[in-house]
């Protein structure tokens, strides 16, 4: 699958007939909401694991030297915490562009972190079949890769450090993200 997913997302899933749509963010979408939203709420999804296994050609790296950013890996019993946003469907023109490097939208169920219920909405997932997927590597290697990468949106380590801080603010412990953060801090 080509790593530019804009057209694919728009063909597969027209949203214009909906009044509003919930979106679950688990990576930069937790800490960088550069789009209008109606409301936002901390949430979690089941069956998905956050992993720094996706290559970034357009934000935190280049096509020649991709950075590493977060995607979700389907894993029974896993839980991934993040931030959910209620948006109007037109906001997806911006979001599809921002997430165009391999991410496809899928519908899933989110549970509110405060335990007060759930809602169905969309999440962007960059699967193993997209051309920018880098896959598994030891966390120390991922940290070294992030330390040397940079793209049009800035250094790759900024993405990681902001995500780790945002997860702490949510009161969440993510072993994978925090292990990469610790390894990165040891290397500098
Ligand atoms: C997300 O944050 O939900 C998608 C991945 C990213 O943009 O970092």
UniProtKB/TrEMBL annotation:
E.C. code: 4.3.2.7
InterPro entries: ChaC, GGCT-like, GGCT-like_sf
Enzyme class: lyase
GO annotation, biological process: glutathione catabolic process
Keywords: Lyase, Transferase
One Gene Ontology molecular-function label: glutathione specific gamma-glutamylcyclotransferase activity
GO cellular component, one term: cytoplasm
Protein's recorded name: glutathione-specific gamma-glutamylcyclotransferase
């Amino acid at each position: 699958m080509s790593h530019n997913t804009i057209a694919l997302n728009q063909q597969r899933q027209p949203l214009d007939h909906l009044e509003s749509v919930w979106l679950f963010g688990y990576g930069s979408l937790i800490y960088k909401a550069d789009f209008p939203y109606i409301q936002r709420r901390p949430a979690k999804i089941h069956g998905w694991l956050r992993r720094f296994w996706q290559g970034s050609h357009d934000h935190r790296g280049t096509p020649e030297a991709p950075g590493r950013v977060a995607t979700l890996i389907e894993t029974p019993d896993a839980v991934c915490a993040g931030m959910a946003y209620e948006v109007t469907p037109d906001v997806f023109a911006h979001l599809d562009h921002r997430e165009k490097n391999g991410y496809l939208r899928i519908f899933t169920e989110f549970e509110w972190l405060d335990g007060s219920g759930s809602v169905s909405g969309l999440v962007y997932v960059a699967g193993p079949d997209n051309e920018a997927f880098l896959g598994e590597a030891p966390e120390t290697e991922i940290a070294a890769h992030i330390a040397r990468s940079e793209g049009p949106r800035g250094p790759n380590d900024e993405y990681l450090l902001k995500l780790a801080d945002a997860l702490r603010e949510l009161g969440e412990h993510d072993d994978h993200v925090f292990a990469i953060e610790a390894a990165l801090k040891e290397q500098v």
